[in-house]
Design a protein that fits this description.
Order of helices and strands: EHEEHEHEHHEHHEEEEEEEEEEEE
Shape: globular
Strand order of the largest sheet: 1-2-4-5-6-7-8-9
Oligomer: single chain
Radius of gyration: 21 Å
Helix content: 10-25%
Number of strands: 18
Mean pLDDT: 93
Structural class: alpha/beta
Largest sheet: 8 strands, mixed, barrel
Length: 297
């Protein structure tokens, strides 16, 4: 049973070198709501990677429609792709989430919370990550059907402060909210991993700072376009995800820093030679030519 912590910017500046001998993993808050990134995510995740501390992520949700929850998942996944994620990516919906919905005249029901959780976790799971729901007894009895979520392949991160987890079939157990860890100046949430989080068998994989995609059958795309979760990516001959300009069949495409193909949009792209220029891309992704380079006049 591995011991871990979950932290956010509220825990202040963390001395991860001091923390490392005391834990086996860390769950980091990636952000909250509509693409609000936790201000300590990069420093925490980078330090954990450097020290080889396995990490997972969680996203505090303010969604009140499944579409909003799915977008929160995409926002979280944008951050996940920057790091090696071995532990789950968790959906964190709490009473503050409900208060926010009420301010927007939305009544939160058990059915709606289930729809939100499924929208978020399905998006995460479809990209090959472990997907989890953070909850406790009171909230789960009111708003979740944990058995149904487990049937869909989602994991449970369960908060219960005591000597025992209280519930079977959970993946992570938050057993304390007032832990003390040398290297962290505040009280800290403490967790146990109750299952083995070996490297995912498929999905996005990071190697030597580059990304590749492992299909469920074990193969991987190379020198080809691949549509992943309704987004097109292109992989080089060695199978690594590409970014930047790409010419294919005499047409030009632009692959964003995330690897996603530009489509049905206008982007400002900067180059050392021409500076910042605007380009328009068709629904199919190819550049719409305007001047001799394709940039808008």
């Amino acid at each position: 049973m591995k011991k871990g912590i979950d932290v956010s910017h509220l825990n202040g500046i963390i001395d991860w070198k001091k923390v490392k001998p005391q834990i086996d993993f860390a769950m980091l808050r990636a952000g909250y709501g509509n693409d609000h990134i936790d201000e300590a995510l990069h420093s925490n995740a980078s330090a954990c990677e450097e020290l080889e501390i396995p990490i997972g992520l969680y996203w505090f949700s303010y969604a009140y429609t499944p579409e909003m929850a799915k977008q929160e998942a995409f926002d979280c996944l944008k951050q996940a792709k920057k790091y090696q994620i071995d532990f789950p990516i968790a959906f964190d919906f709490e009473y503050d989430s409900i208060r926010y919905a009420k301010k927007n005249n939305i009544a939160i029901t058990k059915q709606l919370v289930m729809e939100l959780a499924i929208a978020f976790c399905s998006t995460v799971k479809n990209l090959g990550y472990y997907a989890a729901i953070y909850t406790n007894r009171d909230f789960s009895e009111r708003y979740y059907n944990l058995t149904e979520l487990e049937k869909q392949g989602f994991l449970i991160w369960y908060a219960h402060y005591g000597e025992h987890a209280e519930r079977d079939n959970i993946a992570l157990w938050q057993y304390s909210s007032d832990g003390h860890i040398d290297g962290i100046s505040t009280k800290v949430d403490m967790d146990y991993a109750l299952r083995d989080f070996s490297k995912q068998t498929f999905g996005w994989q990071r190697q030597d700072g580059k990304w590749w995609y492992k299909r469920q059958d074990g193969s991987y795309p190379a020198n080809i376009w691949e549509k992943i979760n309704n987004v097109w990516y292109h992989f080089d001959t060695e199978g690594y995800m590409q970014t930047g300009w790409l010419q294919d069949n005499e047409k030009w495409y632009y692959l964003k820093p995330s690897g996603a193909m530009a489509s049905n949009e206008m982007l400002t792209i900067e180059s050392a030679l021409y500076g910042k220029e605007k380009y328009v891309f068709a629904q199919e992704g190819h550049m719409m030519c305007t001047n001799d380079r394709g940039a808008l006049e």
